[in-house]
Design a protein that fits this description.
The chain is of the alpha/beta class. It has helices at residues 27-39, 65-84, 99-110, 134-141; strands at 17-21, 45-53, 88-96, 114-119, 146-150. Strands 3-2-1-4-5 form a five-stranded parallel sheet, with helices on both faces.
């Protein structure tokens, strides 16, 4: 039996700069796992971003220590997970009126070549599935490709 040497094929998907917006929910886990898979063994870099949404009745630069602490915790967990998988990572916090616009702006500023977002399974009043407003905004307005993963749910297993 002769074993031939196989030529190494280029990867089908390669990304160097991935933006991962984190909401601090269970939906972040899938986005972080996918990012680790895509960047493991590469020189690529992940940018973790948490956006603190500021309501219109408050100043945009208003300080909210509880929101900053929550953001720090979410980013710290994400950073630790990716560092454990040997992925280079940077973190950042933004304050904005709407998370979607802040995510799109950050993606442009950092020249990312992919946005990976997690999405919780939510139902709106009346029973229909609700993607919220952030993910649809980013999908409509981002120049970079967007890879969205809906988190696992047990809720659908009980739906007739």
């Amino acid at each position: 039996m002769i074993f031939g040497r196989r030529e190494k094929r280029p990867a089908l998907l390669t990304f160097d700069r991935i933006l991962v917006p984190l909401a601090g929910t269970e939906a972040d886990d899938a986005a972080l796992r996918l990012t680790a898979i895509l960047l493991a063994g590469t020189a690529g870099r992940a940018f973790l971003l948490h956006v603190i949404e500021i309501p219109f009745e408050r100043q945009l630069d208003a300080q909210d220590p509880a929101a900053v602490a929550f953001a720090d915790e979410a980013l710290g967990q994400g950073e630790a997970f990716l560092a454990e998988h040997e992925v280079q990572v940077e973190t950042g916090i933004a304050q904005a009126r709407a998370a979607g616009a802040a995510i799109v702006d950050d993606a442009v500023e950092r020249h990312v070549d992919l946005i990976v977002m997690g999405l919780r399974y939510k139902r709106r009043f009346g029973g229909g599935w609700d993607a919220g407003r952030t993910v649809p905004y980013v999908m409509r307005n981002s120049t970079a490709p967007v890879w969205c993963l809906r988190a696992e749910t047990e809720e659908l297993a009980h739906t007739p």
